Amino acid sequence: MKTPRPRLHPPALLAVLAAFAVAGCGERPADAPAPRPAALAKVILQTDWYAQPEHGGFYQAQAKGYYREVGLDVEIVQGGPNAIPVQKVALGSAQFAVGRTDELVIAAGRGIPVLALAALMQRDPQAVMFHRESGIRDFKDLDGRSVMAVPGAAWLTLVQRKYGISMSVTPLDFGLSRFLADKRLVQQCFITSEPYYVAQQGVEIGTLLLADAGIDPYRIWYTSRDFAARRPEAVRAFTAASIRGWRDYLEGDRTEADRRIGELNRKMTPEFIAFGVEAMRKHRLVHGDPAKGELLGRIDPARMGAEIERLAAIGVLGRPVQLAEVFDEKFLPEEVRAAATRK
Fold first, then answer.
1. Contact at 8 Å (CB) between 33 and 66?
2. In which domain, by residue range, is 75 found?
3. Where are the beta strands (DSSP E) in 56-138?
4. 8 Å CB contact between 109 and 321
5. Do residues 222 and 30 touch, judged by C-beta distance below 8 A?
6. 190: closest CA among 271, 314, 275?
7. Does some domain include residue 59?
8. pTM of the entire structure?
9. Which end of the chain, N or C, is surrounded by fewer C-beta atoms within 10 Å?
10. Do 234 and 326 belong together in one domain?
């Protein structure tokens, strides 16, 4: 007696037929069209300056295909003196941007709904440089000096209040000719950049990293609160792939990323890029100090909360800003949050 076959109801039958249609019983016919890959979600990352090693992790993630692996087609748009990344993110012309937490908090205080996602640098590379023969050794020695910097920058007020000094501010022209010509002038700089150019001119300089004065904004990437609410999966994917890119840029083979940076910014010679990468390593800008609980990508809520309080105390916020308005750690990868908890 034959064993009766089980009967399939229409829904079950359709499921089986669909499975066979997908898997097939043999090879796909040569003339059959190839299956279409899932469409990648297009997003734009707006950087704060021209392509440079300080953006290397993003170019690494792009070159290595880390963004594509998580379903994203990321276009990296170079910045410059007039890039205004905060406005572009707020208006939706870019989904992500690079900046600092102090900039973000000030923007939020002025009603711009932006959200920090992760730290690409635990220590900000901003510094001041001066001629070695000027006699400057510490921040207190800046008293009475002429400093070329971005007018209204929060660090100017913070340094003057902390050390009880007064500085004369000259608007930064983003060049070096005035600094090279005037041995008394102090200039705002990136520890990873301008000192290289100055050294090429045979000028001996000293630098003071603003982080050593307790002015320690994170260098971050961020998005708008609206985009984070509408596309949380894209925000998490971008953040995870970017952290992976930064880790690989500093620890792996960065040849492709460096080549792309050099193509986009002709000033970025291999020697200059190597200088920038070594400065990031030397000053532990990206990874930070593990003994302090610092970790690639991590933003410490307590540290950022203290920064908000400092900015409020010097009167640069248009209105009170709460930490939850400008940072939500749920977009960080689980391993970053778990490591911080263990610490």
1. no
2. 41-123+217-342
3. 72-77, 96-100, 114-121, 126-131
4. yes
5. no
6. 275
7. yes
8. 0.85
9. N
10. yes
